[in-house]
User: Which sequence fits this backbone?
């Protein structure tokens, strides 16, 4: 098993988090240290509590107990599993809303995700894949220190996904990206580190460092990584 | 082609409306002839002549102005307080618990009870303002509260993550959910305000009012006047609603 543990500084510290829905314990004494930059993938089966963890980190959900240190002054941006777009409004307005009044920035990211010319189209008239792209454009157009992405590429074709992965990488340098996926290829291509989660309660089963760009472009290494994850 | 079909549709609607009005006037004429008693049922011809006379009387515009002014004052005050109340009740549960029974009482109590009660405490001139206010507040309040309740909480969470200002959240998210209810509330509220303020004018015999004219017509058994003023009220109500719809469509 090829596991590389990082020795980075630990600016964000999740300590002994506890979260319960009804009688079901989702997180119990969950702790995790995160760097302040890099792309960390949360990989694991559906329904084990990864989204709950992300929602607690983003502040959407309250934890029952525990603490998160280091996020206090950090700006968060997010793509949601259920998109959470203003479906009655236009593509442009959805992105412009979070861009701090920067029209050019909004247009840049709409174009960058491949929604050129659809500025005035209503979100409700977009396909599922286009809505995912818009969600990514909105997340990137907002100012952020931490970008949380919950299954951001659902419904998007492989070619576009690769372009979007590059776009996210380019625009998240020196920032922290937390990224949930069930797709091993996406996990390997996008992240520096993959945290393999198991439940319940949610716990980190393993950490895989894939922070070697040369190896990522090498097919053998790529499949090695993929097999390594799937073996988990 | 589209313009032509739109014009055709409008003409067809106009034709239907005019046919309906003519049908009811014809029926009215038949009933008038059958009953043959000017005190019970006035002649349509006499009523229309009287309406023309009333419109050209100098007093008419003053009466109209003050009746509309009273109704609008009550209506606008109700819209203002209805909005404030709905925000407060949505924000603070305790206010909702306190206010809900009061608003339910207002909704279910006959307007006449409030008018009589108001006459004890308020000058008769202001009773129509108070009554139209009282009738419209629950409509505006409950409709906006419903809109707030139906607002997608997930979008509010999204707005928190993106640190949107309160103004942006209201304008971009809440307004979308509230506006359809608010528009219906304004349309319904205006009708209620108009009817209730005229009723209050009749009971309180407010000076320079349509209500006082109806009251006088009733006292002197001037059935033609009674019918004429009633038709004037209906026409005014129709015009007001049309103006409001135009205004609201621009607002939306």
Assistant:
């Amino acid at each position: 098993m090829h596991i590389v543990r990082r020795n980075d500084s630990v600016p964000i510290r999740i300590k002994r988090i506890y979260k319960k829905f009804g009688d079901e314990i989702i997180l119990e004494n969950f702790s995790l240290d995160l760097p302040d930059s890099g792309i960390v993938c949360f990989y694991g089966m559906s329904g084990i509590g990864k989204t709950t963890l992300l929602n607690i980190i983003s502040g959407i959900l309250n934890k029952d107990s525990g603490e998160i240190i280091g996020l206090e002054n950090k700006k968060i941006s997010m793509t949601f599993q259920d998109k959470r777009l203003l479906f009655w409004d236009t593509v442009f307005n959805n992105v412009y809303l979070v861009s701090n009044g920067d029209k050019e920035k909004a247009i840049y990211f709409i174009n960058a995700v491949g929604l050129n010319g659809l500025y005035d189209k209503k979100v409700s008239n977009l396909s599922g894949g286009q809505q995912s792209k818009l969600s990514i454009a909105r997340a990137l157009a907002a100012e952020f220190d931490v970008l949380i992405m919950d299954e951001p590429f659902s419904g998007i074709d492989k070619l576009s996904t690769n372009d979007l992965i590059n776009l996210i990488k380019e625009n998240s340098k020196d920032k922290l990206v937390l990224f949930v996926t069930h797709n091993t290829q996406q996990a390997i291509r996008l992240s520096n580190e993959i945290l393999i989660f198991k439940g319940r309660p949610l716990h980190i089963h393993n950490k895989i460092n894939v922070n070697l760009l040369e190896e990522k472009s090498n097919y053998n290494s790529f499949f090695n990584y993929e097999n390594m994850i799937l073996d988990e | 082609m589209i313009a032509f079909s739109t014009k055709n549709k409008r003409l067809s609607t106009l034709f239907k409306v005019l046919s309906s009005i003519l049908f009811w006037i014809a029926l009215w004429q038949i009933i008038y002839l059958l009953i043959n008693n000017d005190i019970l049922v006035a002649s349509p011809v006499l009523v229309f002549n009287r309406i023309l006379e009333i419109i050209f009387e100098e007093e008419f515009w003053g009466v109209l102005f003050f009746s509309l002014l009273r109704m609008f004052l009550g209506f606008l005050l109700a819209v203002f307080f209805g909005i404030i109340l709905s925000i407060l009740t949505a924000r603070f549960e305790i206010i909702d618990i306190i206010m809900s029974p009061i608003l339910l009482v207002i909704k279910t109590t006959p307007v006449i009870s409030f008018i009589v009660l108001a006459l004890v405490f308020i000058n008769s001139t202001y009773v129509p303002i108070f009554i139209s206010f009282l009738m419209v507040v629950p409509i505006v309040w409950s409709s906006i509260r419903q809109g707030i309740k139906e607002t997608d909480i997930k979008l509010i969470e999204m707005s928190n993550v993106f640190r949107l200002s309160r103004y942006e959240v209201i304008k971009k998210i809440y307004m979308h959910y509230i506006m359809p209810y608010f528009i219906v509330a304004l349309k319904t509220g205006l009708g209620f305000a108009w009817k209730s303020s005229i009723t209050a004018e009749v009971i309180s015999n407010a000076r320079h009012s349509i209500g006082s004219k109806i009251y006088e017509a009733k006292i002197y058994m001037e059935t033609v006047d009674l019918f004429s003023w009633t038709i004037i009220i209906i026409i005014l109500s129709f015009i007001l609603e049309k103006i409001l719809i135009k205004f609201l469509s621009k607002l939306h």
Observations:
- Chain B has a mean pLDDT of 90.
- Residues 166-204 of chain B form the longest helix (39 residues).
